[in-house]
Amino acid sequence: MGDFExxxxxxxxxxxxxxxxxxxxxxxxxxxxxxEDSDPQLARTYSGPESGVGARYAWRGNRKAGAGVMEIxxxxxxxxGVQLEFEKPFKATNTVTFTLDPVxxxxxxxxxxxxxxxxxMGVLGKVFPIDNMIxxxxxxxxxxxxxxxxxxxx
Length: 154
Hints:
It is built from three helices and seven strands. Strands 1-7-6-5-4-3-2 form a seven-stranded antiparallel beta sheet. A hairpin with an 8-residue loop joins strand 2 and strand 3 (56-60). Helix content is 26%, strand content 42%. The chain is α+β, with helices and mostly antiparallel strands. The radius of gyration is 15 Å and the shape is globular.
């Protein structure tokens, strides 16, 4: 039905290694994820290693939070790859990549998600572009990650 990409970036006044620690350990996502406040009763399950390749995070929540699983598939010094599988409110498998590029003021963090629209999302994606639906969440998450990473160095 159509491929999509959502991408946002922010500069964070912190070293890539510090920021990486907040991304490659799903337990740390509670500190910055834009979806943490969508369901106060969100059920979380962690499995596999604590961080890095093979770390898994499953969630199940209200209608807004939905349900799904994330697994870290790649964990390099400057790039973390995550497979994201939504179960609810719709089924989808997407690829998420975080890129950490050193810049004079710290680190430029790029949060990118790619996938293919199918089924109902294929139809809805033509009317409501996914960038409009998810982009603001990425901006919110990057702002929260910036706050957490910058205060961790203080």
